[in-house]
Prior knowledge:
The chain is of the alpha/beta class. The protein has two domains: 169 residues, 3-Layer(aba) Sandwich (Leucine Aminopeptidase, subunit E, domain 1); 306 residues, Aminopeptidase. 35% of the residues lie in helices and 20% in strands. It has 15 helices and 19 strands. The strands form four sheets. The protein has an eight-stranded mixed β-sheet with strand order 7-8-10-9-13-17-14-15, sandwiched between helices. A six-stranded mixed β-sheet has the order 1-6-5-2-4-3, with helices on both faces. A three-stranded mixed β-sheet has the order 11-12-16, with helices on one face. The two termini are 30 Å apart. The mean pLDDT is 96.
Amino acid sequence: MEFTGISGNFSHASAEALAVVVFDGENAGSGSLAELDKLTGGGISAVFKSEDFKGEKGQTALLRFSPSGKVKARAIMLLGAGKRANYRVSDVSAASGAATRYLRTRSFKSFAFMPRCEGNAIAIAQAAAQGAVTSQFELDKYKTKDKKNKSVNKVIVCIDGAKPADLKNGLSRGQIIGDSMNFTRDLANEPPNVLTPTEMANRAQRMAKEVGLKYEVLDESKMTKMGMGSLLSVSKGSEQPAKLIVLRYTPAKNTGKKGDLLALVGKGITFDTGGISLKPGEGMDAMKYDMSGGATVIGTMRAIAMLKPTIPVLGVVAAVENMPDGKASRPSDVVTAMNGKTIEILNTDAEGRLILADAVAYAEKQGANRIVDMATLTGAVIIALGDQNTGIMGNDDELVKEIISLGKENGEGFWELPLGEGYSKQIKSDIADIKNIGPRGKAGTIMGAVFIQEFVDKAKWAHLDIAGTAWCDTVKPHQAKGPTGVAIRTLVSLVEKSQ
Length: 499
């Protein structure tokens, strides 16, 4: 997509359509709407009088007209945004995405967008571009017909009074983040016969070469030498070998504190049958998404490499397939993790925490003193929080609160769940150091987190359970159904706030 920024003459923008945000309770005689009302010969006034459109959040209206003079557009789209007092920069992304999806279905190839948002022009432009880019992602990659080929090629973003340099910067940032989110979504959408652990590693490597990241992959022999018995216990039942993907971003000039290293760690289960603790057949097809945490790390590292923050970042993805066969781990097996702790495996379907155990230990061994892991870890978090919030837990209150705050800025919800010794005691094993599940039906999301915590030594650590937010089951005005690319915007902000 091509993006251009302007700070005035919205109605004269060189685009096929104009899209403008409208607030609940406004009328056609207020502000920028007055000029557009004249342009349509009172069309906007007529829409308001009809009471079919009131500016409520999610409402849309399209007015077609014959262009004249300097006006090139042939239609105006009104985007309801609800109460002005509740409108935030994070809402600009959804509004831009909704405009893009609506107009492309009506064969518009270009439009000018007026977000009408107060705040930092760079952040507003970034949200507008990101929303437009991510709105065009579809699930139809493997369709041979009925593909949604219609697309918007050009978006002009108008922010009154904005400096040209700020507009250019914000639009560039938004396109990078949006493309990186779509990169993640494309990975998550791949069928498991295509995206094996090896293929996931190959795609990460190709991306790393394109954007200038350092890349390394640990194969099973290297992981065996490093003592990663927890991770390798999951891959035993699969013909597909496990891979530990390592991506490193090193800034040209490091402005961070000496010795500070942030690590992003992701669960990359490319398909999860549950192993010997076999899942029910119904709904198992969705387990191709079980690598979404790993895909999020890869996509975030892509964005980081292109945005070039001034602190180093380490990305670690444990890519594994969980299958049942004669070599697979059995319930009651005991394995030893990289940090020397022994684990009694009571349920082979609680495998994500087993691979993350060695992945976070590896990240800390590489020098990470802050670790954020992300995983589609538990169905319990969906029961607790649904699809509106990502569950977050950690050993450092400041890190957890910062992620929650940055999530609000980016329109991504995080909800903190408690940890503590009382929960940790519930995963103590009678025959090993710990077991990989807690009491049946009790605090399942927390049990997963306290298990991973056992493999973090001194680092500040936060765990994101994205099982409820990594994909969406319904089409939204600004977004296709399927993988969402959740947390990338927040993680990029976390990195940049740490500079």
